[in-house]
């Protein structure tokens, strides 16, 4: 009816708005449609095509997919009449491109049985902007139209199909050479046909006509396809053609395999991400299937030259060849290493070894397998053991250094690899694992890793690459985890490793991580397999590897093209020799073997490396063997083996890589350590030889410094004590520096074996600590030439050293460092983490720790917004005051510091009412007066009112007399009383004394152990020998224990007997001795047993000797509390003490006022006891030190004084160069006065300069006009003589400093006096050892020479010294400081003299132009004049 025309969808229905349509409107609409189509075809299409090209060139595959989807969508509603080759190509190309490069998620999963709900479908991807359903609908509605067009347009079909093939093969390649361009221009358009076969519908599948033969297709069917439907269907639907375009599926197939996006299970694999980390994560990677099997998927990445093989988890168990159980092993050195760890690390594991002859081996391999469960139904742990995954572990044990490594045997691509999980020593681990601590048998061991890590079979991805399309040479990616523990972690982190077909390994530098200033490099690892082959297929063969580093030219080419490198390209840098990695463990073991059996070095080396005799080059260091082991141990103080790279420039292998041989170096030099790299510390040490052919390892980052060992003659062992990671550096001027790595995070671990004991542990593998360390990876501390102290250059270095000192309880050094720890600028991350580390030190055992914290609080209070104090200063202050008598003199706070901290305690704090703090403050104020913010001792009354705690309330003690009648054995009920007694089972303890007795008795009191009547009885009768010291009586110990134990422990008759024995020791010694002679200790069922009978005998004995019992002793007399005195008088201060013995509690070795400008220095002041100093410092030597310190070498031989004219220089004019008097501004009075003064100054300056007499170097200035030829040689010889003289003087002064300071300290602190029988000095030294008295260091003595205050008087510290001795000590200290200054003076002169020698050498051998030589001569004259002035 008519209503349906507007409401329903019949063909007669009208569209609203178009009710009055006429021909003109239709024509207008069609014209508009054509305009839109033309706009889309001409402009929009070209824009999208251009964007697609750019996206492909930049590798943005996902953007290209979006653009292709929109390009196809341009022709969503195209009709048959509107089709042309361009439109058909756009639709088909977009469909095929999306099929190959985009992963649709509308596909039904193979294992999915249920349909997805509407809610689930809302989670589908919309990253193409066009919904996937819309795309499917578009391709479906156009499929038949396009197929019809292709069938009817043959020539256009061929053009479209070839264009699609070209698009796919090019893959958006932007680097087309001329050859490829020519090939495209001459490309022949092939004839494409649709597959036709009787009985099968292949409509829409197009192939080139030269790739399909219907007859061969029929005859090529297999026999199985004739009887098996599945085989028939597979072969008929998968044609044996190379190229096919399937219009039905929108699929492009090459060589029977369709290209498609890479599967997520491959793309998300960690190994894939390591190799292709430069790809954008959401980009699509095309791949084509190569071969699929049950356990392996093999695909090839299109256009990248990589093959991926994804293997399913391997369910097989690895095996090993070790068949002998560890329980039968008799080799002592292996058991000494493994046995302490066996219960902790190898729990529920069985160990196996291979050969009986392991005693002579330096390296042994054990295998560990899970212990089989015990067949016991009641065993609750059986199920846990059964369900535990099977893990085969390999344990490699080294004899020296003593260490073992644990590896999990893991499967990767059907090969077995080792995965490092644990090492017993962090320093000797090649893998950078987390450091941990274990307590084993009462000892603390540091280790790294987790020995409980298991291995669960998982899919593995093998990645192979072909270096060129024509080459069959391939490389397989080697994951870094399988090299952990085999190569140093430093190399593993900096390189990516690929294994060649010949099993050699190449490491390609990761430019983003390699900070090596030497440029690009390449690692080559050659494997030399042992003769024993692996017949099990489990990877049990053994090989040695030679690692070399090849430097490459930075020519802008990628270093990954190793194929060109093998062909002899210009990539290797010819100016840099390859470096060969040295196994430092072999160096250590060679040292061990050399010490153990020096006659069998060669035999042992050959047994370890059984290839050829030339293998000795790998481990023998003929020129360096005496120092090589010490060098390794020294470097291990800085970092672990994982980040130590020792390189040699001598090749241990032949160039063909087939056998170990001698180096091609014509000099015939054997392998040696030539370069040591510490990548984590950014340090490099290079071997050089000095003029005496001695080896020195110079630090390239610290100019002129080289490694040196510590000798006792240096006399600064105290500076290095407690610094386990410190090493010494020095230079040719014998200046010393302490280097401490900053990457080591220090921590203290409480020891379980000793109460209140801590161990310092350094963790070198904390990633957060290392990251915050930043560029300052190490600290340099210059050592003063007096060897008394070392200085720090930054707040971070000071804080780090402070943390070490606090952790090692060297509080004296820490207390001094705190003065330098203030910082008024924002902390760097490194400074912040070190300061926070100090706040985590929880060691409160010694009182000095509280003093150091309070000192840190005081000095940082002014910058507390930056240096937030992490400790509770109130608790520390209270602990400091309560244990003040235990605080060493070097750590005491000054009176000002102590009162300042007290004033900061809040009023609402509990410490404010603490009686100890209140009385301490009153005592200080009673002893000192405040005068202009400085406290001075009081000389008048020092009384104060103490505040006492309230007296405790206690219940009056029971003074009733004990019932002595209970001891009468003749009482009728006595037997029943004894039988009702509670008698503790008693076994006599073993006799003990000393520490064992203290431990035993302390445990009784602390734990309130009930040992019973007979234990106390035997002690009081002196029958049990338990004593603290030999003179002790066991009776006294029994009395003390009896008083300590609760009354409920021993009551009734037993208590009466012990009370009598306690107060009557003479009667106790006569009491019956308790003896238990029973063979069978069984209870008695009738009568009295042994214990009851003895109690009866003891009671009878006391009753029979009642006449010796003093009744008054049996009543405890508790004295009344004494009367508290008030007021009290504070102790004298040291300046008011006549004998300097009172007031020492206030003594603090600190000088704050350097107010003395002049001090007399005279040889006669030096005490006669200082024999070395008296003989060294003669009157003439003192005069030289005071006037011209370097004149000890007779400077007149080398230097002469010359005037300006004698030096050949022009006279300085006295005429003023100023010509400004005619200027209008100069007419004022001020201007003319100023000009006049300047002119007078010019005249004075010219007069001084023309009359000046300056020292000049004779060797240079005597030949000032002829610095050529033989004169240069003579000048060089004379300067060398000067250098040698300065060196001799420096060595002499250095020896004076060492011996003089040692003698001076011995005298100042009483050692020399005590040897002469001075009792005061001897007692003073004993108090110094207990920290009750101050040990005066040289730096304090030196400071005392510059002050006149009381603390500068050394006699108040060393009270056995008189005033003349103090003056002599200060005079000696002044002379020693002058000598130390002369050493610095000599060092400066030597540096300048060496610069003069360099210029002289240059002038002798240089062939440069005269202008360059003239500049060098002028510089030489300037340097020589500077040297003469010095």
Topology readout:
Blueprint: H1 4-7, H2 23-57, H3 61-73, H4 85-101, H5 118-121, H6 132-152, H7 154-170, H8 178-185, E1 192-194, E2 205-208, H9 214-219, H10 223-227, H11 229-237, E3 243-246, E4 251-254, E5 257-261, H12 264-267, H13 270-275, E6 286-292, E7 296-301, E8 306-311, E9 324-325, H14 332-345, E10 349-353, E11 363-370, H15 382-387, E12 393-398, E13 403-412, E14 415-423, E15 435-440, E16 443-449, E17 460-466, E18 474-478, H16 489-494, E19 495-500, E20 505-509, E21 521-529, E22 543-551, H17 562-566, E23 579-581, H18 584-596, H19 601-608, H20 616-619, H21 625-635, E24 645-648, E25 675-678, E26 683-689, E27 695-699, E28 706-708, H22 717-720, E29 727-730, E30 736-741, E31 745-750, E32 758-763, H23 767-773, E33 778-782, H24 795-807, H25 811-818, H26 829-839, H27 847-859, H28 873-882, H29 895-903, H30 915-927, E34 928-931, E35 934-937, E36 943-944, H31 974-979, E37 992-993, H32 994-1007, H33 1013-1020, E38 1026-1027, H34 1034-1044, H35 1052-1063, H36 1065-1068, H37 1090-1104, E39 1128-1129, H38 1171-1176, H39 1179-1187, E40 1199-1203, H40 1229-1251, ...
Helix pairs in contact: 2-3, 3-4, 4-7, 18-21, 24-25, 24-26, 25-27, 27-28, 33-34, 33-35, 35-37, 42-46, 45-46, 46-47
